[in-house]
Design goal:
heterodimer, B: mainly alpha, 75% helix, 0% strand
């Protein structure tokens, strides 16, 4: 390709700059707020932090959630942030794992074993996305009460997988369906069991697609806020999104922003590590194969 | 479908017909955990909601009585309902259009190699990766700041300007709309990039020689190739478009007073205890979404003929 003239280079560079700023500015802004002292938050420049401090983060970790307002130096409550962090890790890791196992199993069934009407099974599973989540938590509460899971992290482990499952099943089964039959054939001819063929041949091959499904699941699960705040009531039982929603933002604004960052940074790092794999997996699921 | 070949196309001991039967049984066994989750969490609650939408269930009365389609019928005569529908459709169209336009732009920018591409790619990926459950909290409180911050005055002025032009609550609504576009355009951009990556480069080179302008190339080559990805992305963003509004509605205890169907249903159920009409309202869009989905299935379902 011919080298671009200078004005095209400049145009391209400014477009890239615009894209980057548009995407990163809100994230940058929240990061800056969380590093501010209360003094700087009120009197400083909103876009930069001159004297970065970790006091908001420290304060989050020192609190135990035993103080319920009207105590101490101000009206401020304290929040059991460490509990929230622990709950969030358990729920997210567990829900992503359940999603992946259930959807790989279902996708293998639909894509490779192809029971009668497998296309319709897949469509019906995918169509569950049209169900509005609006009032669903009312009857869902009956289910949770029947199972004696009220105010229990297990309830979320049950509910969260359904946020991502339909798309993951769709993606994985489309990929499995397109894989050539010959791939398993040789192993089956040599007398290997189907299970063995799956774990030694199919699963390693489909790693990018499984990674993509996992990242999608993490993204879908990490965006829920309503379900967590409806089903987790006790302050020590909450996940970070549910807990942050109970904070008095007018009083603890900096603390809340620090909490937002603490939750986001690990999720963002995981996603960033697998970002390329995510794109590769999506491509593979939709197009590649036989 | 000849039943004489097993999946692998290999005749197996024990007769292929029984092998096939075993495969089908195994398939159902493997499907069951996913189906169990969906039935427990979605199908049963949905059935309950459909039933309630046909009654006048309310915690304020004793014993629901069956009212048939009365709840639905009453909505059709209610001008407030039509206003809600208008706002809902407007919100969905505006956010979807903006997300698609920006997302396609992202994908096209990232499709060609250039220096620093990995970094720009990461930047585009982050709005979606940043957990929406907490970023919506941050976003909302940034645009409608609590009392004591340096930018409160500026944001306050902006808020009153917007609110006085479009009515109370417009700024809150707008801020959620912007958030939805910000996050959604990242998802669609990355999704379409995956689609573009699948297109063999020779096809684009061919198009480069054949077509007159970049615009033509875009409409006649890129868009048709991306069709399955576009359809899937539009559908996923449509079904999730209202989650952010619902989140902020819950977060601020109903301070979003521009009602869309979802938040209006919350209002009816939680604030006034009318579960029947609320369920009817929540369900009223489902047939339309379902119809749209089945039209879209044609474009993104795997094209091979059925085989077993």
């Amino acid at each position: 390709m011919n080298p671009w003239p200078w004005w095209r280079k400049l145009g391209h560079a400014s477009l890239l700059l615009l894209v980057t700023v548009y995407c990163l500015f809100p994230i940058y802004f929240m990061l800056v707020q969380s590093l501010k002292s209360a003094h700087e938050d009120v009197f400083g420049n909103p876009f930069i932090v001159l004297h970065p401090t970790f006091e908001n983060f420290q304060e989050l970790f020192e609190q135990r959630g035993e103080v319920h307002g009207f105590v101490g130096r101000t009206l401020r409550r304290s929040y059991p942030f460490l509990d929230w962090l622990e709950n969030t890790i358990i729920v997210f890791a567990g829900a992503v794992a359940i999603t992946l196992v259930a959807s790989v199993m279902a996708a293998y069934a639909l894509g490779r074993l192809q029971p009668p009407g497998f296309r319709w099974w897949r469509r019906v599973i995918f169509a569950s996305y049209v169900i509005p989540h609006t009032l669903l938590f009312v009857p869902l509460y009956q289910v949770i009460l029947t199972l004696h899971l009220e105010d229990n992290l297990l309830a979320l482990l049950l509910i969260y997988p359904t946020l991502a499952l339909p798309f993951c099943v769709w993606m994985l089964s489309a990929y499995f369906q397109r894989l050539p039959r010959e791939i398993e054939e040789s192993a089956l001819v040599e007398g290997a069991s189907r299970t063995r063929a799956f774990f030694t041949i199919i699963l390693p091959m489909s790693r990018p697609v499984v990674v993509a499904a996992g990242i999608f699941a993490l993204g879908a699960i990490a965006s829920d806020f309503t379900l967590a705040s409806v089903f987790l009531l006790d302050t020590h039982n909450q996940t970070i999104p549910a807990g942050l929603a109970t904070m008095e933002v007018a009083l603890d604004e900096l603390l809340a922003v620090a909490g937002i960052n603490l939750m986001s940074i690990p999720v963002v790092l995981i996603c960033a590590v697998f970002a390329r794999g995510y794109v590769r997996g999506l491509t593979a699921a939709m197009v590649e194969g036989a | 479908m000849p039943a004489t070949t097993s999946l692998a196309g290999v005749p197996r001991p024990g007769g292929s017909r029984s092998a096939r039967r075993r495969d089908v049984a195994l398939a159902y066994a493997l499907l069951s955990p996913a189906l169990a989750l969906l039935v427990l969490v979605l199908a049963y609650p949905l059935a309950w909601e459909v039933w309630v939408s046909l009654t006048d269930l309310s915690p304020l009365k004793d014993g629901p009585s069956f009212v048939g389609l009365e709840n639905y019928r009453r909505f059709l005569e209610d001008p407030e309902f039509w206003r809600t529908v208008l706002i809902t459709v407007g919100f969905a169209t505006a956010t979807c259009g903006a997300k698609l336009a920006i997302g396609v732009g992202f994908a096209l920018v990232l499709a060609r190699p250039f220096r620093g591409r990995a970094l720009v790619f990461l930047a585009v990926f982050l709005p979606w990766a940043y957990p929406a459950s907490v970023s919506v909290i941050g976003w909302y409180w940034t645009l409608s700041p609590p009392l004591p911050t340096a930018y409160s005055v500026f944001m306050g002025t902006l808020k009153y300007a917007v609110d006085s032009a479009f009515g109370t609550g417009a700024w809150a609504f707008l801020s959620v709309t912007l958030f939805n576009i910000w996050r959604g355009s990242s998802f669609i951009g990355i999704f379409l990039l995956a689609g573009l990556n699948a297109v063999p480069p020779e096809l684009f080179e061919c198009a480069l020689l054949e077509s007159k302008s970049a615009w033509q190339r875009f409409w006649h080559v890129t868009v048709p190739l991306l069709k399955p990805f576009l359809a899937l992305a539009v559908f996923l963003s449509l079904t999730t478009a209202f989650a952010d509004l619902a989140n902020v509605w819950m977060l601020t205890a109903g301070r979003i007073i521009f009602p869309v169907i979802g938040t209006h249903a919350y209002w009816l159920a939680i604030k006034s205890g009318q579960f029947g009409p609320a369920s009817a309202l929540a369900l009223i869009l489902v047939p339309f979404l379902l119809a749209a989905l089945f039209a879209l299935f044609r474009t993104f379902d795997a094209p091979e003929t059925e085989r077993a």
